[in-house]
Structure formats: structure tokens, C-alpha cells
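Hey team,

Filing this mostly as a record. A colleague (T.K.) asked me to run one chain through the structure pipeline before their review meeting, and I want the input and output archived in the tracker in case anyone asks later how it was produced. No errors, nothing strange. Just documentation.

Input sequence:
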Amino acid sequence: MPDPTYVRDAFARIADRYVMTNHVLSMGADVWWRHVVTKRIKQLQPGRLLDVASGTGDLALTVQDAMPECEVIATDFCAEMLEHASSRGVRKTLVADALDLPYGEGEFDIVTVAFGLRNMGDYELGLKEMRRVLKPGGHLFILDFSLPKGVLRKPYRFYLHNVLPKMAGFLTKEKDAYEYLGGSIEQFPAGEAMIELLEKSGLQEGSATPMTFGVVTVYEAVKG
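Output structure:
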């Protein structure tokens, strides 16, 4: 698992260029990924949503724009990233550690985490904290990278480990900021492994939906 101090420092250094870099590296697909998650959330008509490890607030802002009646709160342990979330229009932000959320039991209808669980120092503890703050019957949505299967797996891994870090380094002017990314994706539980982890963390009805040939996956689970 990634070292939290390293991850926080890396994000602080690239905060100013983070949004642009993600759009370029994903060729704009990241916008579509967030809209897919938001469409699912909208069907549940939540009143209060917590976006954990929100970073620059991309998902929080997408949800907020689509559901202005929903109270959206974005948290992250990197203050520099949240400053950008606020400046981009996320109405409520709070610097907080995802492994020790400053909220009581059962406060939220929905909890989301996009490309953030993979960066936490303890996946299971992070999931248990997200479950804790969910209301009974509340939904957790996870959007994160995964590895494609079949013929695309080998070329994608080459891109992930050899091309992407160099491109990201050029775009962010921080040579080593994305060097950990490939390893973190390789180690991150995906598919059935993630569903098992969700169940181990006390969540139910876990599902996995791969997108863009399996480059990312949307996971959904419910607090019983």
C-alpha cells in the first residue's frame, strides 16, 4: 500500500496541474466515468453525500451540478487539493483523514470515493470508516483504476509503467509524482477481490462494473 505521507506530499506538489493532467492522460474519459457514477447516484435521490479523498473535487462537483438539492461535502487529507475544489465551486469542503472521518455514525445517504481508496494506507479501515458514516441502506460508490483482461492487458501495463509516468512528469513538472501509480494499480484489489473486501468490511450487495475495456471499475455496495 502507498505511504500516506508520500502520497499527500506528491498531491500537494501537483495540485495546480492535477485536473489538466488527468484529462490529458485519460484522453477525456475521466469526465465520462464520473458522469456514469453520478447517473447511478441520481437514481437514489440522496439528501446528503460525502465525497471522500475528493482531491480537486471532480466527482463532488459533477454530483453537485447534477443534484443541486443534495448536500455534497468533499473531504481530503491534502489541503492544497481541496483549495482547488473550493475555487472550482465545491460548496462544502473539509480537510480530513479518510481513515478517521470527523462524522458520526449514519450521517450520509451516499459515500463516494474516486481514485482515492487506492492511495489509502489501509483499504479495509478506509472502507469501514465509509460504512460507519453511511445510513442503514446507504450506498457506497468506488471509482478506481483496474487492469484490463485479455489482449489489452500487456500493452496497457507497458503504458502504465513506462509511458504514463513520463507524460505525467512532463505535464506536472514533477518527475516522480506519478511513479508510484503503476504499482498502486497492480496491488489494488479489483473485481471479485474488491467485492470480497467490501463484504469483509461489513458492506453488502457488492457489485463491480468495468468501463473503458477494464481500465477503470465502478464498485457499489450497501450498508445493511
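Quick notes for T.K.: The radius of gyration is 16 Å. The CA atoms of residues 127 and 201 lie 6 Å apart.
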